[in-house]
Every structure is written in C-alpha cells, then in structure tokens.
Amino acid sequence: MPVRRPSILVPALLTIAALTGCAGNAPELQSQLQSLSIPSTSENTPTVAALPGEPQGGKLISGATGSATEIYSRLARGAMTCWFPVGGPLKKDYVFHATADAPSRGGKAEIVIHERDSSQPNPRGPKAFVIAIQPTGDSSANLTAENRKMPNPFAAAMTDDISRWAKGTDGCATTSPTPGWIPAPPETANAVQPVKKSKDQKPKVKAAQAKPAQQP
What we know:
This protein is α+β, with helices and mostly antiparallel strands. Among the domains are: 10-40, no CATH class; 59-172. The chain is built from five helices and five strands, in the order H-H-H-E-H-E-E-E-E-H. The protein has helices at 9-20, 26-35, 41-44, 68-83, 152-166; strands at 59-60, 94-100, 109-116, 124-137, 140-147. A hairpin with an 8-residue loop joins strand 2 and strand 3. Helix 4 (68-83) crosses helix 5. The longest helix is centred in the middle third of the chain and has 16 residues, at 68-83.
C-alpha cells in the first residue's frame, strides 16, 4: 500500500490557528505569517481569459505614411479597384462598407469587409475583416487589420495589399500564392480578328474607258 505523506500545510495551518487566538498582538502575528512564505491571495487569483469569439485586437501594420484621411483614401481606392471589381476575389461573397470622419475631425476611419447575406435586404452579414485607421497627429496614423472570419490565405493576401497601399504604392498584386486572388486575364475572344476574303469573292475589275466613235 502506498504511504501517504503528511501535508506540509498542516503545521502551517495549526500555527495560523494558534496565532489567531493571540489578540492584541497584531505586529507579531503579521511577522510570523510572513515567515510561513504563504503566497498572498492576489497572486493566487487566476486571470480571466477572453471568451471565444471576442476580438483580440488587430495586427499593427507598420510603415503607413500620411494622414489618416490619406491612408483611408488609398486603402478604399485599392479595395474597390482590386478586391471588388467585376471578377474580383471578394466581389461574389463579401460586401465593402466604410465610415470615416472629416479631416477637420482627425480623419478616423474604419473599413469593414462583411460576409454577403443575399437573403436580407441589406446584404451586409457578419464582419469578416476589419481595418482601423486611428490618427496620431496631423500627418500620421496607426493602421491595424483584424481577421474575424476571412479564410487565412485571403486574409494574408489582403494584409499584403494593405501594407503596400499604406506605404503609398498603388495598384493590385501581380503575383500571389493564394489561389484565386489574381483574376485570370480576360479572354481574347473579343480581340479584333483580321478580315478574311471569301473564296467566292471575285476581284473588282475596273470598267474600261469608252473609246470615242470613229468617223466614217
């Protein structure tokens, strides 16, 4: 049979019980309690973890240049040009929505990519990706991007685009490891084709010039 070892807390608890009976000797009691090396209650209090589904805060995008309004304008233009054009990677399943304060009020802005819910009059469903622009001065701002429900490959491609646009580089990505992120080049069906001559088409013959009648 295993031998049960006496708990080391028992002598300590007995000592505490004996000390608490000594009224009017608070300094000595406090000194002896400290000598027991018992952790304080605050150190034993567990930390409360965030509940599942709660936002954990966005990822800071470094290198953003310009005011909050300038950054917002570049990002909104890039998103509508590269993410939401006809045939764009987010056009079918997502909806773009943005709010921005006037420059005179600092230019704080937020761009939200919602899941598309076609069953509702307002198709904006749950938030899938959130971009926040917080002014830190007249010509500077903090930029964060937070993935809520976007597939990770798309979220990574979006973050790359955001980082590039925030630094002042316009245009869409030309290469990407994410399948479907770069739209396929348009078909050449509508390209102008050279006109082919029909086999039955006969070359035009110039009419012979009429000769003047000879006098008898």
